[in-house]
Design a protein that fits this description.
By secondary structure, this protein is an all-alpha fold. The protein has a domain of 47 residues. The N and C termini lie far apart (80 Å).
Amino acid sequence: MTVMLTILLAVQMLSAVAMMGLILIQHGKGADMGAAFGSGGSGSLFGATGSANFLSRTTAVLATLFFVCTLLLAYFGMARTQAPSGSVLQGVTVSTPATAASAPAVPASGAAQIPAN
């Protein structure tokens, strides 16, 4: 069970890092407007529109993988930590308070502390 949780966590972390990288590589929607008027190179490794389709689809696949890994980790985490019936505080031991003899004596009323003139 712990091996599967470790694999799921590793896949989740790798998909998150890859997704961040792909999101940072992508151009915004307004980037094509500047390329239409001749400012900037519109040629890329995948062609003019091929990069947007490839990168956006890869990002969607990685986002789905990340979401599925998150749900599976939450499910297995809840299934693993279910406590047996009973209270959470069953195993807690209560320490005995200090004895009354060691505590300082407090007068019953505040009248004894008022100085008389």
